[in-house]
Amino acid sequence: MSAVTDILVIGGGLAGLSALTSAAESGASGVLLERTASLGGSTVLSSGLMAFAGTDEQASAGIEDDVERLRHDLLETGRFRNDESLVDEYCAKQLDTYSWLKALGVQFGVAHAGSGQAVPRSHPVDTASVIDTLGRHARVLGAEIRCNVRVRRLLVEGEQVVGVRAEIGDDEVDVRAGAVVLASGGFTQSEELLERFAPAMEHALRAGGAGNTGDGLLMAAKVGAGLADMAFVKGTFGIFPWRSAAEEGTGILAVYKGAIAVNGYGERFINESLPYKVMGDACLAQPEALAFQIFDENVLVQSDASVPIYNFRRRLEAGQVRRADTLEELAEQLGIPADALCSTVTGYNQRLRDGAPDALGRTTLCGGVGKPTPLDTPPYYGFPSTTVVLATYCGVRVDNETRVLDVFGTVIPGLYAAGEVTGGFHGDGYVTGSSLGKSAVFGRIAGRRATAFALGSLTSVAR
Ligand SMILES: Cc1cc2nc3c(=O)[nH]c(=O)nc-3n(C[C@H](O)[C@H](O)[C@H](O)COP(=O)(O)OP(=O)(O)OC[C@H]3O[C@@H](n4cnc5c(N)ncnc54)[C@H](O)[C@@H]3O)c2cc1C
């Protein structure tokens, strides 16, 4: 492994590979270190939805969207607690990043509606192939990628980060770099950090890459990095509550295609069109943190095998979605009171037919998209659901050039960060596809900016 490089990237998910690739394209030598045996991190476990506005796929489907609407959704869903400069940078660079990925060979599917979206803008991608594509491209440009190497510490001289100390088997090696890009993901796999920063998620499930234990957050904290959005870690609604071989970490969101959500008493408890993290909190507040998505055949037929959260049929085949000819039978299968479930569904349907306001304020299917319709076409379906922490949406404070800022807001020279290890972008809420989106957009920016810094500052780093 090279002992000296222009850019050293920590973590082989979407943010890290985007950074490595853009650094290589900008003419830097680059080394990426990944602690697990393979690339991909949470990226390859995800549902693969990316939030972009103004795409070819939207245009083909007749969906009108623009960057102003995207910006508004990001800020409104984040309850205006986002760092606006990061949102603005995302908005300015998102379409260019989408085109960059496309030019590299990434294929985007038909855009779906998702959490916090005024119009459908969740573009499905095959994440494994995105990782593979970026990795191959970076290697062709001369970058080096090493798995099974865990970075343990950032090396600092004066105030500047000048490399990393990494662990290879029982050995420790130092790699000197003109700049370091932290792209080590979040901390969904660290009970200790979740307990410290997200105690309200105690009863939520966890998902994410095996290596995502918050190493980057801790290493950055040790060199003085500030933190952002730490109070806003939330779980996502819709995962099957009991571990099973069929579980892949993503749940289903039949609610966004017309289902209702009821608790163990058979009663609705939330406007189902709200962002799935708001629903995640509401679900955790129900008895046993348990809910059920209830739907009919009209919803089931919208199942889409290419989008995990909308692949209802797969969950049916796995026995997780229960099917019954009547609501009474469905209630019995799910272990909830039949009279309550029937009355909930009947009341919901009647209000829709009468054009009466919904008691919980639902006027759309998902975000600003779609109109609810009565659940009256058998067979009926029910999917037990709870909340899962898929990602941690908070972390190291960065500016819009991805430079890591210290606790006083001053740039830490030589240290950049992108992806789930960073905070500030989402604020107090989450728009579907914005995690993968930010990993690609800011990963790419980090590669370029770190390169500009490294190539201009190498005299200060012994090479
Ligand atoms: C089930 C699930 C579904 C999701 N669905 C979506 C979705 O549809 N759309 C969306 O936008 N987001 C989604 N997310 C969130 C999204 O996948 C992540 O936020 C995003 O992939 C993060 O990318 P990243 O590159 O920052 O981190 P990761 O992809 O997690 O990569 C980080 C890498 O760093 C490595 N690493 C950690 N520490 C070290 C170290 N010390 N040394 C070396 N390497 C290290 C890790 O092993 C990992 O491989 C989902 C997440 C999950 C778990």
Task: Please characterize this protein's 3D structure.
It is a single chain. The chain has 463 residues and is an alpha/beta fold. It contains 13 helices and 19 strands. The strands form four sheets. Strands 1, 2, 5, 6, 7, 8, 17 and 18 form an eight-stranded mixed sheet that branches. Strands 9, 11, 12, 13, 14 and 15 form a six-stranded mixed sheet that branches. A three-stranded mixed sheet has the order 10-16-19, with helices on one face. The protein has helices spanning 14-25, 56-60, 67-77, 84-104, 127-140, 191-197, 215-222, 276-284, 297-300, 312-317, 327-334, 338-354, 434-457; strands at 4-10, 30-33, 49-51, 122-124, 144-146, 150-157, 160-168, 171-182, 205-206, 227-228, 236-239, 260-263, 291-296, 322-324, 380-389, 395-397, 403-405, 411-417, 422-423. It has two domains: 4-232 and 391-460, FAD/NAD(P)-binding domain, CATH 3.50.50; 236-389, Flavocytochrome C3, Chain A, domain 1. The protein is 32% helix and 21% strand.
Task: Give the topology, please.
Layout: E1 4-10, H1 14-25, E2 30-33, E3 49-51, H2 56-60, H3 67-77, H4 84-104, E4 122-124, H5 127-140, E5 144-146, E6 150-157, E7 160-168, E8 171-182, H6 191-197, E9 205-206, H7 215-222, E10 227-228, E11 236-239, E12 260-263, H8 276-284, E13 291-296, H9 297-300, H10 312-317, E14 322-324, H11 327-334, H12 338-354, E15 380-389, E16 395-397, E17 403-405, E18 411-417, E19 422-423, H13 434-457
Parallel strand pairs: 1-2, 1-8, 2-5, 8-18, 9-15, 16-19
Antiparallel strand pairs: 3-4, 6-7, 7-8, 10-16, 11-15, 12-13, 13-15, 14-15, 17-18
Helix pairs in contact: 1-5, 1-13, 3-4, 4-13, 11-12
The structure holds flavin-adenine dinucleotide.
